[in-house]
């Protein structure tokens, strides 16, 4: 797979992703944000053997999708701080999750927006798996949340945040973010609870 800048913010670039394979697929047909992707170099299907669980409706043709894409990121300037870039959505093909493709694309996207002159990069996450993956990409919990109970993460554009990355996995901010998921009103599924408990190492799976 190769990295591709699909378009800068304001270019009007879109990606038509199969909603059966990609979370947030509908967000990538919005032209205002910039977009990056990991895609096949020759335009061939990225996951040729994948079989969807449901058929497409009669009004949608499979060849309308950008099936050479395996992961995508959308990004745009923060609405209140033009020196900060926000990663709006990160999505990976359902058949290729767990392979590190999302973090790989996030790192390349951060390098791109750094070259564009941004000082900081932010992203909001709504689950502990994304939280841990982005921590390894240099993001750290800010202690803030969005209005929809997502945790706000941030890193300097040019360097990882302090207390981030693999060597900072037991840092105070990292643990605080994990505990924030436990404190939310949302119902965590057993897999999420186990994931948090394993990383905290203090029996947090109960509750």
Radius of gyration: 18 Å
- The helix-and-strand class reads alpha+beta
Taking the sheet with the most strands, its summary is: 7 strands, mixed
Q: How much helicity do the residues have?
A: 10-25%
What topology, given as strand order, has the largest sheet? Answer: 1-2-3-4-5-7-6
Catalogue the unreliable spans.
none
Straight-line distance between termini: 41 Å
Principal-axes geometry comes out as globular
Oligomer: single chain
How many alpha or pi helices?
4
In short:
The protein is 23% helix and 23% strand. It is an alpha+beta fold and 207 residues long.
Molecular structure report:
- The protein is 23% helix and 23% strand.
- The chain has helices at residues 101-115, 128-136, 172-183, 190-200, and strands at 2-7, 34-39, 69-77, 84-92, 120-125, 140-145, 151-156.
- Strands 1-2-3-4-5-7-6 form a 7-stranded mixed β-sheet.
- The chain is globular, with a radius of gyration of 18 Å.
Q: Which helices and strands appear, and what pairs or packs with what?
A:
Elements: E1 2-7, E2 34-39, E3 69-77, E4 84-92, H1 101-115, E5 120-125, H2 128-136, E6 140-145, E7 151-156, H3 172-183, H4 190-200
Parallel strand pairs: 4-5
Antiparallel strand pairs: 1-2, 2-3, 3-4, 5-7, 6-7
Helix pairs in contact: 2-3, 3-4
Keywords:
7-stranded mixed sheet, 23% strand, alpha+beta, 207 residues, single chain
């Amino acid at each position: 797979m190769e990295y591709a800048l699909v378009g800068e913010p304001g270019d009007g670039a879109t990606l038509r992703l199969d909603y059966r394979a990609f979370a947030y697929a509908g967000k990538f047909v919005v032209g205002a944000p910039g977009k990056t992707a990991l895609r096949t170099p020759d335009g061939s299907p990225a996951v040729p053997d994948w079989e969807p669980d449901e058929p497409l409706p009669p009004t949608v043709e499979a060849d309308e999708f950008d099936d050479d894409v395996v992961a995508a990121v959308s990004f745009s300037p923060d609405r209140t701080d033009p020196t900060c870039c926000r990663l709006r959505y990160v999505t990976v093909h359902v058949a290729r999750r767990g392979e590190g493709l999302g973090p790989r694309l996030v790192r390349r996207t951060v390098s791109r927006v750094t070259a564009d002159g941004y000082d900081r990069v932010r992203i909001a996450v709504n689950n502990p798996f994304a939280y841990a993956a982005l921590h390894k990409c240099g993001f750290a919990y800010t202690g803030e949340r969005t209005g929809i109970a997502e945790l706000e993460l941030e890193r300097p554009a040019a360097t990882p945040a302090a207390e981030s990355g693999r060597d900072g996995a037991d840092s105070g901010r990292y643990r605080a973010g994990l505990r924030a998921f436990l404190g939310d009103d949302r119902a965590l599924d057993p897999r999420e609870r186990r994931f948090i408990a394993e990383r905290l190492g203090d029996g947090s799976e109960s509750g």
